[in-house]
Task: inverse folding
């Protein structure tokens, strides 16, 4: 059933990228046509580059997204950016609840849920991240942690058109380590069950991305796993050749 879900390869540039990185983005735009048959592409640069990238990407096969938003529309929140501002700059998706924000900024499941709702309010897709730490994995708590994060972070009424879930084991991010294909299959299957039991038919159609040390060398194996509907890529999304090669690895 999930075979019909079109894969999405999303790049999370994190706190990387000056204006000079536009050249790399240009190369992604150029190469995107070659991989369009395989997957949709989304690049989430730092907020400073969203508007410029979105202008360049207009009419091309790469969408532009953001890495975070504030739950409110506007107000006295120095340094924060509203989802409406990101949409206005050209973002069509917003990553919320990345483990680096949960850790660096103490973001709770409730706050992540409010940010996902803010993305919808602005008319853009929320990409909600969940994942266990090494310690939680070692303690055999992975599924319990994921159940709790998904329950708390996903808004009621989530639909396949406006919600994407990204499973990113914290211990796999930036480490070169990945779970085995068997582990990924079990965990994505578990997430799928939770989504369908909570959101019925919509849950069956939602994209579930895998993230954590995805590279050209492991993409094909990971992307072939049942209920893996694409990837959320960090380091390897900074280079056009790697990012496009990962998309080529989609089944
Ligand atoms: O955190 C990630 C994407 O959001 C994954 O990062 P890496 O691909 O660098 O491991």
Result:
């Amino acid at each position: 059933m999930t075979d019909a879900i079109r894969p999405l390869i999303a790049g999370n540039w994190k706190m990387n990228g000056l204006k000079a990185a536009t050249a790399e983005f240009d190369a992604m735009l150029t190469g995107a046509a070659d991989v369009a048959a395989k997957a949709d592409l989304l690049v989430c640069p730092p907020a400073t580059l969203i508007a410029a990238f979105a202008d360049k990407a207009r009419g091309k096969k790469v969408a532009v997204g953001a890495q975070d938003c504030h739950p409110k529309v506007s107000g006295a929140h120095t340094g924060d950016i509203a989802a409406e501002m990101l949409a206005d700059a050209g973002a069509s998706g917003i990553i919320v609840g990345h483990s680096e924000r949960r850790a660096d900024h103490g973001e709770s499941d409730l706050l992540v849920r409010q940010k996902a709702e803010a993305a919808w309010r602005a008319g853009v897709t929320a990409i909600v991240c969940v994942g266990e730490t090494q310690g939680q994995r070692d303690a055999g708590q992975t599924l319990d942690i994921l159940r709790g994060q998904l329950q708390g972070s996903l808004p009621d009424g989530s639909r396949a058109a406006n919600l994407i879930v990204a499973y990113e084991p914290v211990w796999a991010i930036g480490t070169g380590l990945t779970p085995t294909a068997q582990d990924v299959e079990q965990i994505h299957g578990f997430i799928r069950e939770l989504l369908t039991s909570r959101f019925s038919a919509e849950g069956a159609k939602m994209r579930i991305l895998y993230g954590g040390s995805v590279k050209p060398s492991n993409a094909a194996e990971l992307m072939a796993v049942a209920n893996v509907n694409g990837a959320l890529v960090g380091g390897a999304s900074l280079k056009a050749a790697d990012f496009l090669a990962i998309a080529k690895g989609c089944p």
